[in-house]
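Continued from yesterday's entry.
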Amino acid sequence: MRRRGAARLALAGLALLATVLFVRLGLWQWQRGTAGQAQWQAFARGADTRVPLAGASTAVPLYQRVTVTGTLDGAHQFLLDNMSFQGRPGYEVLTVLQRPGALPLVIDRGWVPFSGSRRVLPDVHLEAAGPRALTGRIASLPSPGLELGRAAPAGDWPKVTAFPDMAELSAAYGTALEPRILLLDAQDPAGYVRAWRAPGMSPLRHFSYAIQWWTFAGLTVLVSGVIAWRERRRRRHP
């Protein structure tokens, strides 16, 4: 009898722990979905208007569409590694825009495919040209899912890097850079493949995962309740 009682208590404890875990995981996914929804809405709002980037500041709302004038530095570019497009591995090309009287601004010119060999980098040569106006969205540098995926810029130009921070890009470039970047509009001929969207998975997927975890919590409560009911019935009607 004592063993049966201990087993029932252990089962109830496991059910309680599982239920709490499932509820907390559901809340976590719901919070991620809410945060993602805010980002996706901000991304959608950013396309409504285009504003000139005034002076030295990029202090505009994230994903705001802006126009900026300067000269692209084709001799010193970065290749952002571990970036994929439609399942294909490749790089995103980061080119610095020199601006008179302002910090240089990193321009993400889009995605190029991986050549199949780390020794053969894609040709991202950029013809020398004077000042020009570029249009795109103000954004942050991509961030890795795991810190182990990061690598500071290295090698000759163009320098390969994986999920760097702006301090690392600034150190490699030799001068301070604007803390945010510009995602070049798809219509601009100076870029490569560009299909920009808000970062992260769809908020609806997060919400669906939350509902799944909460469903597991409900099933755990239901199953443990049925088991407890059958045990009580068995004791009353041996």
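--- second protein ---
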Amino acid sequence: MTLKTTLILFQLMGYLTSKFIGIKVTSEAKGKQDYILAALCLFAQGSLVLFGIIGTYAPNWSFIPIFFNGLPLGMVWGLVVSYFEGRKGSDFMMVSLCISFIVGSGVVKDIALVLLDRGFTQFWVPAIEGSMFACVWFLCIILLNQLPPPSTADIELRGERVAMNHQKRLAYFLLFAPGLVALWVGAALLTSYRDYRDSFSVEIIEDMGVEVVPGILSKTESIIAGVLLIPIASLVFVKDNKKSFAIAMSFLVLGAIILLVSTTLYMAAPYDGVKYYIISGLGSYLGEYFCCSAVLVNEFIHSMLILHSLLVTILKGYVPYNSVLFERLIGALGEQCTVSYLVSTRC
């Protein structure tokens, strides 16, 4: 196992651990999200500095600070969306937020490539990038706190969103347990895919015969984000929660079809690797769990790719999961709940 694989696995372990912590923290954080987000940022940045120190002098132990770096990550999304949920414009705001981290993923990788080209070591690049964006993070927290609370019309349309203690969380889960478990399992698989694609994007593109240079990852992710923004954000014009939920589910099916067709065509006659990366990324973010097996180049794995794609078409899309789906689900069911609780409970 390579050092990179080890580091990714330990960061995911930290992320998974934070999900269990976040079930309580994010669902009870109404009114104090700013303090928690600031503390999580400082904790994450401190772990990256520690990663730079340990990585420089004892690289075999660098997985320890990376595990701690993963601990804040699973709570951030739930805390941020708690500012946006329960509003008439929640769909657009959440989709925009979700799109931003798709683009941001490519941008930070390109910045990392530039820093590496300028002689910084791989162990210090994360801390340097983290310090570059820390000021922006705190500015965003200040701006989020300027948002007015949901209006009376918002509450009538989407329902009131209040802090959920243990009793409220348990009651809601027991009321809708089968459906929630099914959604959470699908989301857990999709999160695993997204982290795999995100962590090994350079290797995936290189194994398709494409040279990775600064700017290429920002370009591919920006194209995917731009295309996704139009159909999903259009749901803001659909006021009926049940209809919007049904349309979101149709997007998931469409994404599965895009992924299946693009993969089948690539298997039959490999075309431009960057185009395949963009199209399959679009399909997977819109509607499906994607194998990313382009990085696995032996004949057996390639022969199984189409079968795998067929088997996983029942799974759901990453962007709808993290934006409109849970928001509209709460409105459609009519029971008091929060998106921050639902997205934090799914792994």
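The longest helix spans residues 90-117. The radius of gyration is 20 Å. Will compare against the first tomorrow.
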